[in-house]
Specification:
This protein is mainly alpha-helical and about 70 residues long. It has one domain. The chain is built from 4 helices and no strands. α2 packs across α4. The chain is elongated and about 45 Å long.
């Protein structure tokens, strides 16, 4: 079994056992940062460091093998 096949088997098993999928994780991350970006305290901190949100968000929910 290759590394990619092993990762897929593990990912499938976790999704079946927990119901947690990569799509679910992406929605969670996007929702979390949407709230952060509107928070009076947190928004200025993040906005000072992150100019382009999409690459940052993609990195936050990307699997290691991508």
């Amino acid at each position: 079994m290759t590394g990619a096949e092993r990762r897929q088997a593990i990912t499938t098993e976790i999704a079946e056992r927990t119901g947690i999928t990569e799509t679910m994780i992406e929605r969670l991350v996007r929702g979390f940062y949407a709230k952060v970006r509107t928070d009076a305290v947190l928004a200025p901190i993040f906005e000072a460091r992150i100019r382009d949100w999409e690459p940052h968000l993609k990195q936050m929910f990307a699997s290691r093998s991508r």
